[in-house]
Amino acid sequence: xxxxxxxxxxxxxxxxxxxxxxxxxxxxxxxxxxxxxxxxxxxxxxxxxxxxxxxxxxxxxxxxxxxxxxxxxxxxxxxxxxxxxxxxxxxxxxxxxxxxxxxxxxxxxxxxxxxxxxxxxxxxxxxxxxxxxxxxxxxxxxxxxxxxxxxxxxxxxxxxxxxxxxxxxxx
Length: 171
Prior knowledge:
By secondary structure, the protein is an alpha+beta fold. It has four helices and ten strands. Helix content is about 25%, strand content about 35%. The termini are far apart.
């Protein structure tokens, strides 16, 4: 089934719909959510993207990064992503600021990813059950250690994780 995204102009006015692969080749603006999930000890859940992912395979990523389906709200997409990728529930997600823009161009992957993204923070303590199509591995990490790693070896992580963790004040 073809995944359709709502597309927007650079100021956020909806223009219509476009298939995912065309969105990422053309640089059409679309919407995404990025979720930072913490356990009760304050450690951040990070995931390693699956080998089959078309963008940044096997890179470590924030807890959940999800595109919005056509007509979906940021919050609904965040909850859906948490459930689909990790089989977890998070009853309370708090927005980290307002939606922001994020641009990533990777010519070697024929990718032009232009997003309006909303970041959220939440707490989870359940059993993680990975979707192996999406996620290869996961772990909880101490924030201080993670921030050191993001600065010293950023190539191990997705570019959006490195940038957004700074943008929202995680690191």
